[in-house]
Amino acid sequence: MSDLSKRRLKTWIRLLGVTRAAENRLRDYLRREHATTLPRFDVMAALWRRRDGVTMSELSRMLLVSNGNATAVVDRLEKDGLVRREAEDGDRRRIRVRLTPEGLTAFESMAEGHEAAVDSIFGNLTETDLDMMRDILARAGRHE
Q1: Which of 29, 33, 121, 127 has the fewest Cβ atoms surrounding its Cβ within 10 A?
Q2: Could you read off the pLDDT of 34-53 as tens digits, one per residue?
Q3: Which neighbouring-strand residues pair with 85?
């Protein structure tokens, strides 16, 4: 292995560590302040972005999870009155999921705190750091 290869590997490990630490802090925040989970927040965020609702298959693709995982989270959110399922164009085989008014209010409250938590997690980064990181990650994500 070359020195550059080893440095890339160490960078990957560092990236994973930062990601896991940030995710753990967000999970803890959501649990303590909103009595919810990160998967529930992620589903609600996806539905907030698509106010007209999405099919379960679309939701699974958006979140990069299995249909079964998405269904389990939606089942609990529906039980709590935060989302509702509706037949699309009267076709009971094609169901759209959307936030209820209560779900919209709950999500917006969570999202405000979530943003503050992320801001705190990365609070030691300057605007220049963030611009540089965005550019570096964009380059790293290209696989030509």
Answers
A1: 127
A2: 999 999 999 999 999 999 99
A3: 97
Rounded Cα–Cα distance for residues 97 and 53 (Å): 5
Q: What angle do CA 12, 15, 18 make, to 5 degrees?
A: 155
Residue 144's pLDDT is what?
A: 61
Q: Are 98 and 86 a contacting pair, CB within 8 Å?
A: yes
Contact indicator for 44, 110 with CB cutoff of 8 Å: yes
Task: Give CA–CA dist 134/30, Å, rounded.
Answer: 26
At residue 53, the 3 state secondary structure works out as coil
Which bin fits 64, alpha (ψ -120 to 50), beta or left (φ > 0)? left
Q: What residues contact residue 139 under an 8 Å CB cut-off, 6+ apart?
A: none
* Other CB atoms within 10 A of residue 104 CB: 17
Confidence (pTM): 0.85
